[in-house]
């Protein structure tokens, strides 16, 4: 097993570490007004530099979101009223509370 040849002095350590400095990331604004790093697509962008971005499952996510908005408007009065003539003042359609 080999051993290190020389001790790394503090001055050598500082000279080596002088290249470790971080630079600030370059930020830009796209046409939609979103800020993002340069040469990287903005989060939520559908195209980059005029080229459409393919996002796996995006169509399915959009379809689910549309279904949620549609079901929210339909669920206002979702239970069956055929053959029943009643008003909604006397009962609650929420979760049933357990009696002690």
Structure write-up:
- The chain has a domain at 24-71.
- It is built from two helices and four strands.
- It has helices at residues 10-17, 58-74, and strands at 27-29, 35-37, 47-48, 51-52.
- The strands form two sheets. It has a two-stranded antiparallel ribbon.
- It starts with 9 loop residues before the first helix and ends in a 26-residue tail after the last helix.
Keywords:
100 residues; alpha+beta; two-stranded antiparallel ribbon; 2 helices
Fold topology:
Blueprint: H1 10-17, E1 27-29, E2 35-37, E3 47-48, E4 51-52, H2 58-74
Antiparallel strand pairs: 1-2, 3-4
Percent range of helical residues:
25-40%
> What is the number of helices?
2
Q: What strand order characterises the main sheet?
A: 1-2
- The radius of gyration over CA amounts to 31 Å
Flag low-confidence runs.
none
